Amino acid sequence: MSLVFAINGQRFELDLSSVDPSTTLLEFLRYQTSFKSVKLSCGEGGCGACVVLLSKYDPVVQNVEDFTVSSCLTLLCSVNHCSITTSEGLGNSRDGFHSIHNRFSGFHASQCGFCTPGMSVSLFSALLDADKSKSSQFTALEAEKAVSGNLCRCTGYRPIVDACKSFASDVDIEDLGFNSFCKKGASSCMTLPRFDSEKRICTFPEFLKDEIKSADSGMYRWCSPASVEELQSLLEACKANTHGVSMKLVAGNTGTGYYKDERELNYDKYIDLTRIPELQEIRETQNGVEIGAAVTISKVITALKEIRVSPKVEKMLEKLATHMEKIAARFIRNFGSIGGNLVMAQRRQFPSDMATILLAAGAIVNIMSSPRGLEKLALEEFLQRSPLEAHDLVLSIEIPFPHYQSLLFETFRAAPRPQGSALAYLNAAFLAEVKETMVINCRLAFGAYGTKHAIMCKEVEEFLAGKVITENVLYEAITLLGNIVVPQDGTSNPSYRKSLAPGFLFKFFHTLTLKEQPSNGYHLDPSKPLPMVSSSQHVPVNNEYYPVGDPVTKSGASLQASGEAVYVDDIPSPKNCLYGAFIYSTKPSARIKSIHFKESAVPDGALAIISCKDVPTGGQNVGTKTGFGSEPLFAEEFTVNVGECIALVVADTQRHTDSAANLAVVEYETEDLEPPILSMEDAVNKASLFDIFPFLYPQQVGDTSKGMAEADHRILSSEIRLGSQYFFYMETQTALAVPDEDNSIVVYCSSQTPQYVHSTVAACLGIPENNVRVITRRVGGGFGGKAIKAMPVATACAVAANKLQRPVRIYVNRKTDMIMTGGRHPMKITYSVGFTSTGKITALELEILIDVEATLGLSMVIPSNIIGALKKYNWGALSFDIKLCKTNLLSRAIMRAPGDVQGTYIAEAIIENVASSLSLEVDTIRKINLHTYESLALFYKDGAGEPHEYTLSSMWDKIGVSSNFEERVSTVREFNKSNIWKKRGISRVPITYQVSMFATPGRVSVLGDGTIVVEVGGIELGQGLWTKVKQMTGYALGLLQCDGTEELLDKIRVVQSDTLSMVQGNFTGGSTTSEGSCAAVRLCCETLVERLKPLVERSGGPISWNKLISQAYAQSVNLSASDLYTPADTPTRYLNYGVAVEVDLVTGQTTVLQTDILYDCGKSLNPAVDLGQIEGAFVQGLGFFMLEEYITDPEGLVVTDSTWTYKIPTVDTIPRQFNVEILNSGCHEKRVLSSKASGEPPLLLAASVHCATREAVKEARKQLRTWKGEEEGSGSTFQLPVPATMPVVKELCGLDVVESYLEWKLRANSRL
Prior knowledge:
[2Fe-2S] cluster 1 binds at residues 42, 47, 50, 72. Its main location: cytoplasm. This is Indole-3-acetaldehyde oxidase. Helix content is 31%, strand content 21%. With 1312 residues, it is α+β, with helices and mostly antiparallel strands. The strands form 10 sheets. Strands 21-25-19-32-29-30-31-40 form an 8-stranded mixed β-sheet, sandwiched between helices. Strands 2-1-5-3-4 form a 5-stranded mixed β-sheet. The longest helix is centred in the last third of the chain and has 26 residues, at 1073-1098.
C-alpha cells in the first residue's frame, strides 16, 4: 500500500508501512524534500509561516478543491492522493517569479522575509477562491482577509495589505500605498495585471487524477475507512484487542496546535475520518441543517451562508457563519472540523466558540458509542456528559431552524484580536422569541470565561420569559447573571471576563427598551465592521546622490517571497547531522542534583546530553563574551535564574531531540540556599546590584532642589511600572556547527553579532580564533534578540559538534525560545515633579529600578538610553538614581529601542499626570515644555548639534497644521458628548532619539566581467541593509562617469558575512549599521575610484565600465579594497503626531482609528526602506504599549509561551488610517550623505496610542462618575498600565459600567 501525492507537480510515493503516521507535512517538506519555502516558526498553527495550498480532486464531479492548510499540523498521511503547492511552486528565480512575488517586492512588503512565502500562498488561495466563484470578484475586503491570520513582525502589515489589494477589482493602484509600480506624482502608472485564471498554476497534476483509489482500511497504523460501517468494525477490533490498542481519530489534526502533548503520544492506530462520505455530508431539511462531523469549519461557513429559507432564519445562519469566521485563521478552519472542535470542548474543556454559538442555536449532536449505540443528544447534554471515550464518535451536528414569528439572534466575543486568531476572554450567543418589547422565551449561552464548557443560563432565561424588557427588568437579569457566570479559580482576568457577560446581555436586549421599534419586529444591531486599512505616504525622493536616495525595491525581496532565500535552517543538513534541544532550568535558584529521563529509559534517537562537563580541556564554560564581560554557557552546580541553560540533548532527528528534551527531568535541591531574589525591591534591599561603568552613567542637569523650591505644585513619589516584551522574531534562534579539519569548526548562525559568536566559540572550545569560522547570510528578524542571546545557541551547537565530531544543528522551538531568550527589561519608576500653575515643569527627580536578572549582558546601556529619550522635554532640572537589579528572574536582553521606549513613556506619563493635576489639556503641557535650542543644549550638551538642526518645535507646528489637529480635537469632543458606549481620544507626542554609530568594515571587489561583490560587517536582518549598501556602491563607483555606470546597481551583489573574511564586524543594531556599512563601502569605492581614474583619463574619451575593468585586469590594478569606517556620535530627533483611538466601554477593545507620523529621516538613503522601518517599528511599539503580555509565574517562568497566549499585532489591530510623512531636513555634515536612522526611533512613537487611549479612558471615567453621582474631579487621576490590554482598559472604564448606567437610569426614571 502506497502513499501517493504531489508537491509542486512532482510525484512522491511512499510505502505506507514505513511512514510514521504522526509525521507532519512540514517535517516531510523540510527534511525530506528540497522545498524550503515552508517555514517553521511557531509549530502550532498560529503564525502562517508554514502555510501551503492543498488541492483535492473529486473524481465524481471532476472538480479540484484548493485551500490553504497549516503544514505544521497537517499529518503527511492525510494528504494521500492530494497535491501540495508551496510558494516556490507558484514561481521562482529559474522559471520566473509569480506576480504575487513581484507585488510583494514592488510594494516593499517583505523585510526579513521569513513570513513572506506563507503570505504569498495565503493570497494565492484567496485569489483562486475568487476566481472560481462565478458570483463575485476579488475585492479589497477579501484582500485584507486573505492574510489576516498570518503574522509578520517586521513590516507593520500596511504594505502587505496593499500588495494584496493590488489584485482587487475595486481598487485603483493610485489609491494604494508607496510602491515601485506607480510613483506618486507621476503622469502615468504601470497597469498591473489582475489575477489571470488562464495562466494560473496547475494545482492538481493530471497524473495524480489517475491514481485516486480507495485506501486499505485496516492493515497499517494509518487507516482510512470508506464508510461508517468500516469505521465501526475498526473501532470494535481495536477495543476487542486484548493487548490494548491505543488509537486516535483524525480529521484535521488541528487540535494538536493547542494540545501539544498529543504529539508526544505514540498511538498504535490513526483512523482518518475524512474519507467517510457520511461524515462529510451537509444535508438541508425543512426543519434544519445536518452537518457531518468531519466537515471543515470553512465548509460549514459557506453552507450556512448559502442556505435559503425564511429571511429571519437566514440572518441567524449568517450570524453563525460570521462568528465562525473568527475561529482561528482561515488555514486552520480549512482543515479543522466542526466535530473535532466540539469534541475538544467536551473531552478537554477547550474554550470553544463553536460550542457556545451552537448551544444558543439549539444544536443537536448525533453520536455513536460502544455501549449505547446511536444517540441523539442536545448539545447542552453532550457537553455535560463525562468525557467521550477514545472509541466514541460524533457523527453529525444538527442546527434546527427556529419557527418564531419574531426572532432576535446575536453572537458576541471579546478577544485580543477583533477578527479572530485569538481565544475569547468570553463568548456568548443569544436567541430570543419576542413580541414587540416582550420576551416570549430565550436561549442564553456563555462560554470561554473560565468554565468547563459553554453553559445555558436557565435562571435568567426563566426570569426573562414573558416579561416586557425595561431597564428595571434588564438590571434584575444582569444581577442574576452575575451569580451564574463566575470564572473558576486560576482563570486569568476573572473580574474582566465576568464583567463582559452583563455587557453582552445588555447590548442584546437594550434596544427593546427604546421607544421606536423596527416595524418587522426583528432587530439586528451588529457591531460595525472594522474599517479597512487605508494610508497615505509623503515620501521625498532625493536624486542628488543617485542611486542613493532612490526608493528601489529591497534586495532579494522576490527571492524571499518565493521561499528561495536561504536562512540557517534551510541549509541542507550535512551527512550524519545530529539535532540539539535545550534543557533549561525551571527553578530560579537551586542546586542541580541530577539530569535523567522520565521512567529512566533513553528516548528514541537520543545520543547524548551535553553539559558543562563536555566543555573541552583548555576551554571555558562561556556562552557569551562581550566588552562588558562573559557569561556561562551551561549552569554548573547551581542555577541562577529560570530559563538558564542546563544542558543540550542531542538526537538523530529534530523530533527525537524535542521529545527527549520534553522527557528530561532535572532534580533540584534548595536546602541551605538563600531564598531567590524575585523582585527589584528585594534586590535593592539585599544590595544585589550591578555596577554601572561611570562613562555610561548619564549626567544630571541643573539643581532639582532649587527647581522644586520654585514650583507652585508638586507631585511626590508617584509610581510607574513597566513590564517586558518578547522579540517574537519569526525565525527562532538557530545554528549549525560543522567540525572541520585541523581542529577547526564552521558555524552557521542567525546572529546580529557574528564577530562575538566567533570569539565566544573559540574561547569555549579553547582553540585559536583562526580555527573558527562563523557565517551569517541573513536573519529572519532580530530586534536585539539575536545579539547576545544568539551566542550561547551557536556555542552550544559548537560544543556538541566538537564532542561528537559530527555536524549538529539547533532550531529552538518557540516555547523554549520565549523562556530562554527573554525580552525587554521590566522597570519600576518612582518620580517627584515640580511645576508652575501654567504647567511649566521646574524639576524632575527619578528613582529607576531595572530588572536585569542574574547576568548583565548589554544591560549597562539601558540607563543612558532611558535618560536620553526622557530629555525630550525641558524639565528645568533633572536628577535620577538608576539601579541595575540583579535578580533570579527570567533572563533579559536588549530589545529594539532598549530603554528609549521606556524613557519616552515615562516622560509622557509625567506630563499627563501634571496636566491632570492642573485640569489642563495634555497637549498644552507638552508644548509649554518643549525645548528651545538653548535648553536643548543644556540637556544634550554637544549632542544638540547646530541650531539649524533642531527641527522639533517647527515639526510640532507643522504636524498640527497638516493633520488638522485642532479640528480633530473638536471632532473627538463632539463624538464623546454624543456617544455613551464608545469614547475617543487623540494625542500628539514628540520624541527625540540619540543614536550611536559603530566602527564598521567593508570590502568591495570588482570581478573580471565587471560585476561587483560587496562584503560588509553589518547583517541583513530585514532592515534593507544590503539594499542601501548596493545603492551606495553604485553611487560611489558611478563617480567615475563611465558609460554604463548608471546600470551598475544590477551588477552588484552583497554576500553573506564570514568572520574569517570580514573581521571587526562589530554589532548590527542601534539603527545605524546600515549607515555605517554604507560609509565603509563608500571608503572602499573611493579607493577603487582612485585606482581606476588614471585608466579613465588615459582612455582619451568615453569608456564603458566593462572595458575599463578589462583594462584594469590586464594592467594588474588591484580591484579589491577594504576599509573600516570609524564614526563620531551625533544625535537625531523625530516627531510623531499621533493618534485617534476609539474605546468600546463594553469590552475595553481599543481601535486605532488614525495615526499620522511626521518623521525626520535627513536625506534618506532609500525612502522605501525607511518607510517600512518607520511603520514596522511603530506597530511593534503598538504591541508593547497595547497588546503584548509577557507574563511569568511567581518564580519567573514564562506562562505566555505560545501564539495562543502571546499576541503580537495583526492586520486587524494596526491603525485603520496609517499616514506617514518623511521629512527631508536637509544637510547634516556629520551623517552619511546627510541620512538619519529609521530602525528603532519610530517604535517610541507608539506611545501616542497609549496616550490617546488614556484620553478616551478619562472621558469614560468622567461619564461613569456622573452616573454614580460622584463629585467632579474625584478619581480623575489614574495610571493606565502598559500594556493597556482590553481587561486593563475595561477595568479603568468601569467593570460595572453597564450596571452603573442602569442604576443611573432607574434613579432618573424614579424622579419623573
